[in-house]
Amino acid sequence: MFSCNTSTSGHSTFLLTGFPGLEASHHWVSIPINLICVVSILGNSIILFLINTDPALNEPMYSFLSMLAASDLGLCASTFPTMVRLFWLGVRELPFDLCAAQMFFIHAFTYVESGVLLAMAFDRFVAIRDPLHYASILTHSAMAKVGAAILVRAVLLNLPGPILLRRLLFPQVSVLSHCYCLHCDLVGLACSDTQVNSLVGLVSILLSLGFDSSLIMLSYALILQTVLSIASPGERLKALNTCVSHLCIVLIFYLPKLGLSVLHRVEKHSSPALAVLMANLHFLVPPFMNPIVYCAKSKQIRQGLLKRFQQKTVDVS
């Protein structure tokens, strides 16, 4: 830990942290992480391409899925560059402005993804509760407004973070806990009073992840209530099956965050490498798994992918 005797505001340098104790093997350790990043970018790009070019996927559910893929790509673009700098180039230094910018985009895209998951839960609720009015409720105009609201909320909730950080004093050189910049990490390194920053960060989380997760649980409670009122067991199973993909990605999104939170409250210093691994998976797993889940569970996406592949084969022949 560096001394606060030579602290400055807005001119500090932050050192990224890889896997403690495995510095000599960073190249090998980082290969799976980099492969996950590449697959995530390819998978989400393919999902976006299919939804935007296939008329059969012109439905509200797939429009929300395209928003989810776009937020996943944004999250990959926010975290991947510093991972490459650290693991492959051995560059640990990151100036304050770049660190604050990365922090803003990581948290903003995380909040966007959380908001999209809530919108998708509402989509499933309307499809099951009121299928006759589904198309009239979730119009293109309504979805555009929902998408804009999610984006504006993410920006407004994260904008105070970098601004308030500039008033804090940091050591000339500070060591981060991860290979990217997070708000809680930066606030913990400050030499001055951070009560306002901590309060703003807490309110931001409650109004995004806390609010969204509560409404998602409420949506599924109402969905379950509606499904149980259906007389036919076959229809009940069919209705629940339409929610499986969304429920999987909700768990994939929130469970790593819960695991990381528990790890930070347990004695994380006893296994720092595990803490770093969990922190990386916390951001890498959702963008990696979301395209796989939807390709595995959505017949329309599989058909669209197969059609594109067959078309490409015919063109080559």
Automatic annotation (TrEMBL):
Listed CDD domains: 7tmA_OR51-like
UniProt source species: Rangifer tarandus platyrhynchus
Function: Putative odorant or sperm cell receptor.
Pfam families noted in UniProt: 7tm_4
Name of the protein described by the UniProt record: Olfactory receptor
TM spans (from-to): 31-51, 63-88, 100-122, 134-156, 199-224, 236-255, 275-296
Highest taxon of source: Eukaryota
InterPro entries noted in UniProt: GPCR_Rhodpsn, GPCR_Rhodpsn_7TM, Olfact_rcpt, OR51/52/56-like
Subcellular location: Cell membrane; Membrane
Domain G-protein coupled receptors family 1 profile: 43-294
Family affiliation: Belongs to the G-protein coupled receptor 1 family.
Entry keywords, A to Z: Cell membrane, G-protein coupled receptor, Membrane, Olfaction, Receptor, Sensory transduction, Transducer, Transmembrane, Transmembrane helix
Membrane topology: Multi-pass membrane protein
